[in-house]
Inverse folding.
């Protein structure tokens, strides 16, 4: 009995305790045409260091994270981000003009006022299901839209 108790205690002290991941303000812009890529955004925070390693949604064939970089020539370019680092306790926000999700291979138009599911897969926290609200094609975000 004592051996089992001490083993369980030792395991609880040495096992990593991964914190919670919080995803808020998940939204996307409505699409103008069915076959065009769609941009999506969110705010994310983790209580422990983690990494966003995969994104899946039934509405798109592929989801990628893009960072917008301004070149020396003044031209903005998108760079694929394979893994999104989430430092412990730091808020990471994807907003228009900076980092965003790009949903590609969409079969139908995304209509304003609808929503869709997406699964975010983290290296440590595992899978987190998130519902993305769809706003107008020129929306600046949920906080602006909700006012």
């Amino acid at each position: 009995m004592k051996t089992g108790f001490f083993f369980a205690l030792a395991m609880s002290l040495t096992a990593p305790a991964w914190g919670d991941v919080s995803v808020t303000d998940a939204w996307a812009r409505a699409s103008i045409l069915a076959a065009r890529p769609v941009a999506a955004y969110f705010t994310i925070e983790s209580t422990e260091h983690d990494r966003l390693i995969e994104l899946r949604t039934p509405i798109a064939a592929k989801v990628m994270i893009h960072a917008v970089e301004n070149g020396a020539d003044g031209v903005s370019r998108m760079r694929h981000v394979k893994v999104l680092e989430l430092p412990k306790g730091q808020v990471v926000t994807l907003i228009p003009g900076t980092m965003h999700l790009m949903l590609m291979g969409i079969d139908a138009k995304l209509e304003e006022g609808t929503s869709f599911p997406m699964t975010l897969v983290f290296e440590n926290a595992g899978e987190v299901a998130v519902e993305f609200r769809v706003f107008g094609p020129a929306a600046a975000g949920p906080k602006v839209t909700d006012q």
